[in-house]
Amino acid sequence: MIKSDLIKIAVSVILLIIGSVHNINGQGAYRLNLEEVVALAQSDAPDALLASTRWKRNYWTYQTFLADFKPNILLNATTLPLFNRSIEPVVQPNGNVIYVPRAFMDNGVNISLQQDIALTGGSVYFGSGLDRLDLFATDGNEASRSYLSNPINFGFEQPLFQFNAMKWRKKIEPMVYKESEKIYSEQMEDVASQAADYFFNLLISQLDAEAAEQDKANADTLLMLSRGRYEVGKIAETDLLQVEINAMQAETRLAAAQLDMQTNAEQLRDFLDLQGDITFELVPPYILPDVLIDEEKALAYAMQNRSNIVSFDRRLMEANMEVERAKGESGVTARLNGSFGLTQTGPELQQVYSNLIDQEVVTFGISVPIADWGKSKARREVALSNLELEQRQVDQEKENFRRTVVLRAQQFDLVQRNAEIAERYLEAARKRYEISYQRYLIGKISVTDLNLALSDQESARRGYLQAVREYWMALYEIRGLTLYDFIGDKSLMLQTPVGG
Predict the structure, then answer these.
(1) All structural domains of the chain with their residue ranges
(2) Helix 165-231 and helix 34-44: axis angle, to 10°?
(3) What crossing angle do the helices spanning 307-328 and 375-441 adopt, rounded to 10°?
């Protein structure tokens, strides 16, 4: 009997434990620290997925650019076949036009290789083709068949004295690609900084709610005690009213803190894209690593890793390109085209690949502006002015960026020391309040003195939390500016989502 009861008790306990775990999982409870929230954001947050998608687009755009400068092999069979049976007008040697019935079928195939030459801005091509023409018997005409071969055909097209867009693309596109790689790492650090911001919004509101709940409990205890003292005449009615006001204010602060906590929890859920009834139990990052950030190293990492450094060079390169475009499109322009090949024709296929004859075509065209009423000069001057303006803007932005990095590195030491001072201040304020609370319980101090101690403790608590927040946010800011982890002593340049 005893054994049966023990078994029932054991089963009940197991079921209770299973039920508790099930409820926690069903509610989606998350106990997370700052590092885990950041990692979760960088892996699953919509902003992180958007950054990854943008990078993939940039990657394939760059692959398209690389393919543009590789040989292009084409097989053309546009007349395979071309059949025509009709009556068509034919101009006679004397100028008259007569209508003649025609019936023929044309079959042609050509394979070619084309290559753009970025150095010169021209292109060359190699090709080989074969064409067959079948004439069908009509009134007065007999059926016949003939072949035309072009076993070797070589040609080129070369602009002269013109703007070479291919040359500039080959300079600029790799810079754009390199810039996009760095932008991806920057965007992921932006996600980390945003995650830290949402983390502290919710954490501080949770701690505010805990403090407000404790304050309300203390206020209720003091109210009960003060009512007893008032009934025996130990305190004045004004003191009792003050304690009652304090209790109501504590209840109001608790309600406001709970509402703020609910709002911040919803914002963090949305940012992390977590569905369902999710609750967070955040672990305060009170342990602050002692980090020494050397401003010269921080500046060196920033100049090496940040995308805007590449952007400065790219913008100047594009401005120089526009100057060359204005010069190349406003002066003398010429174009040289040429082709060389071997060809033969005949009624039989084997005949068109023997006794080949050569064929050459060379054309040269030139365009010389005579008068454009200063339009070309104006375009060149505009391009040169834009280049000068861009140079000045780049110099200013580069200097501003350098100053920002150095300033943030210098300020971090102050932020770190401020957090240490805030912690000591909080310890003193808490100790003072505990002593004041105990002294009030035994009637040694007035409610006014207790309120002052409580106000100082609350101010110190908020100041400490704000100092902790400023420390971590400053650390994430310097991480984003330099793309370097000074705690782990490693680069934050990420492996891109697609190879390359």
Answers:
(1) 30-60+171-317+389-491, 74-117+122-163+336-368
(2) 140
(3) 160
Residues 6+ apart with CB under 8 A from 95: none
Q: 239-248, long-range: CB within 8 Å, 24+ apart, which pairs?
A: 239/446, 239/447, 242/447, 242/448, 242/451, 243/219, 243/447, 246/219, 246/222, 246/447, 246/451, 247/216, 247/219, 247/220, 247/222, 247/223
Q: Please give the model's pTM, rounded to 2 decimal places.
A: 0.78
Domain 30-60+171-317+389-491: CATH superfamily, name plus number:
Outer membrane efflux proteins (OEP) (1.20.1600.10)
* Bridge pairing between strands 29-32 and 279-282: parallel
Task: Decide: 131 and 94 in contact? Cβ < 8 Å.
Answer: no
Cβ atoms of 429 and 462 within 8 Å: the answer is: no
Cβ-in-10-Å burial (0-12, 13-18, 19+) of 142 comes to exposed
322-372 pLDDT, tens per residue?
999 988 887 788 889 999 998 889 888 888 888 888 888 889 888 888 877
Torsion of CA 295, 298, 304, 308, to 10 degrees: -90
Q: Measured between alpha carbons, how far apart are the two ends of the chain, in Å?
A: 73
Coil vs helix vs strand at 438: helix
